[in-house]
């Protein structure tokens, strides 16, 4: 990933974060996902009065890409107003992992960026490779 592309994803994730719908937590998160063919899909968290139905920025970005038929990714960028770069929840780690091993950049509003990957975020994750071949 070039520094220029990281900056571009940072900008897109920050912009997506502004659309977060967070009347319950007041915690806005933004995500920007770069596909293998260099398209960018974004997501923000969207909460619900039935709290458990809320969905994270990361999953919204991934599902948005899927909705356009894109499932091959180079990098996911996530940003929130956190003391340390934001740490994705377990559900998002599992969904990120569904589409393979790719770079993940975690950031906060202070400009701190931590580079990691989907595999590093979910060691020993469950995937389709773990399922019976006949079910593939
Ligand atoms: O990585 C994260 C962590 C939390 N949230 C959302 C879920 C909920 O709307 C709010 C507080 O948990 O932040 C995300 O979108 N991404
Ligand atoms: Zn999550």
TrEMBL record:
<feature type="binding site">
    <location>
        <position position="92"/>
    </location>
    <ligand>
        <name>Zn(2+)</name>
    </ligand>
</feature>
<keyword id="KW-0479">Metal-binding</keyword>
<feature type="domain" description="CMP/dCMP-type deaminase">
    <location>
        <begin position="4"/>
        <end position="129"/>
    </location>
</feature>
<feature type="active site" description="Proton donor">
    <location>
        <position position="58"/>
    </location>
</feature>
<feature type="binding site">
    <location>
        <position position="89"/>
    </location>
    <ligand>
        <name>Zn(2+)</name>
    </ligand>
</feature>
<dbReference type="InterPro" id="IPR016193">
    <property type="entry name" value="Cytidine_deaminase-like"/>
</dbReference>
<comment type="similarity">
    <text>Belongs to the cytidine and deoxycytidylate deaminase family.</text>
</comment>
<keyword id="KW-0862">Zinc</keyword>
<dbReference type="InterPro" id="IPR050202">
    <property type="entry name" value="Cyt/Deoxycyt_deaminase"/>
</dbReference>
<dbReference type="InterPro" id="IPR002125">
    <property type="entry name" value="CMP_dCMP_dom"/>
</dbReference>
<keyword id="KW-0378">Hydrolase</keyword>
<feature type="binding site">
    <location>
        <begin position="45"/>
        <end position="51"/>
    </location>
    <ligand>
        <name>substrate</name>
    </ligand>
</feature>
<dbReference type="InterPro" id="IPR006262">
    <property type="entry name" value="Cyt_deam_tetra"/>
</dbReference>
<comment type="function">
    <text>This enzyme scavenges exogenous and endogenous cytidine and 2'-deoxycytidine for UMP synthesis.</text>
</comment>
<dbReference type="GO" id="GO:0004126">
    <property type="term" value="F:cytidine deaminase activity"/>
</dbReference>
<dbReference type="InterPro" id="IPR016192">
    <property type="entry name" value="APOBEC/CMP_deaminase_Zn-bd"/>
</dbReference>
<dbReference type="GO" id="GO:0072527">
    <property type="term" value="P:pyrimidine-containing compound metabolic process"/>
</dbReference>
<dbReference type="GO" id="GO:0055086">
    <property type="term" value="P:nucleobase-containing small molecule metabolic process"/>
</dbReference>
<protein>
    <recommendedName>
        <fullName>Cytidine deaminase</fullName>
        <ecNumber>3.5.4.5</ecNumber>
    </recommendedName>
</protein>
<feature type="binding site">
    <location>
        <position position="56"/>
    </location>
    <ligand>
        <name>Zn(2+)</name>
    </ligand>
</feature>
<dbReference type="GO" id="GO:0005829">
    <property type="term" value="C:cytosol"/>
</dbReference>
<dbReference type="GO" id="GO:0042802">
    <property type="term" value="F:identical protein binding"/>
</dbReference>
<dbReference type="GO" id="GO:0008270">
    <property type="term" value="F:zinc ion binding"/>
</dbReference>
<dbReference type="Pfam" id="PF00383">
    <property type="entry name" value="dCMP_cyt_deam_1"/>
</dbReference>
